[in-house]
Amino acid sequence: NAGVTQTPKFQVLKTGQSMTLQCAQDMNHNSMYWYRQDPGMGLRLIYYSASEGTTDKGEVPNGYNVSRLNKREFSLRLESAAPSQTSVYFCASREAGWGNQPQHFGDGTRLSIL
Amino acid sequence: GNSVTQMEGPVTLSEEAFLTINCTYTATGYPSLFWYVQYPGEGLQLLLKATKADDKGSNKGFEATYRKETTSFHLEKGSVQVSDSAVYFCALSEGTGNQFYFGTGTSLTVIP
User: Is B48 within 8 Å of B59 (Cβ atoms)?
Assistant: First the structure.
């Protein structure tokens, strides 16, 4: 059971470069999420997609764009990477927008921007 | 608004010690409450959940009781093991809302 798969697992970029982080889930979940995790800050929501065809901003959307490609896939794009975007990025999915359903997480992408 | 507050870490315990990690929440309605665990280099895994007041979630020897009167969901384990060393996150989700609200995490180290 793959669950939520994120690629790549590690990436080093130079300031100003662009890249796309990929996320796919095989649980037929409607909702998908992108978080960043920084020391002492916990998890901060970047963007989420409540269902296929919709996306909404979270707490820290600046500098990022997202695409809900289909029900399975939700990508995160950095158009012009900055050192402040050095972080661990997690994708998550959830069965539906109901409060009692948990989120399921991928193993993360560790991104360093020099 | 919604928020979760966890006790500050790091927490260091000897093997077989009793563990409590405090979690309190603020919510406008009737949230569901969750504990997640994150092992080094991995993503968050659901540890347990409770969906209404007085529910007790339990898994792998961990327990937490949803206390509406004190707006708390403290995580407990009677006898920790070295393998429990990880970061623990308390979280809430409310009604039909899509967002989760996470605490900042509590790092636990268990020494032999």
Answer: yes
| B34 reaches A (C-beta below 8 A) | yes
> Residue A62: pLDDT band by 50, 70, 90 thresholds?
very high
Per residue in B47-106, pLDDT (tens digit) is 999 999 999 999 999 999 999 999 999 999 999 999 999 999 999 998 666 788 999 999
Distances (CA, A) of A96 to A100, A102, B39, B59, B95: 9, 9, 26, 23, 11
Search chain B and give the residue with CA nearest A42: B104
pLDDT tens column, A18-45: 999 999 999 999 999 999 999 877 899 9
Q: Is A110 in contact with A10 (CB distance < 8 Å)?
A: yes
Give Cα separations from B107 to B7, B40, B85 (angstroms).
10, 11, 8
In chain A, count H helices and then E strands: 0, 11
Contacts with B, A 73-102, CB within 8 Å: 90, 92, 94, 97-102
Half-sphere exposure of A100 (CA within 13 A, CB side): 7
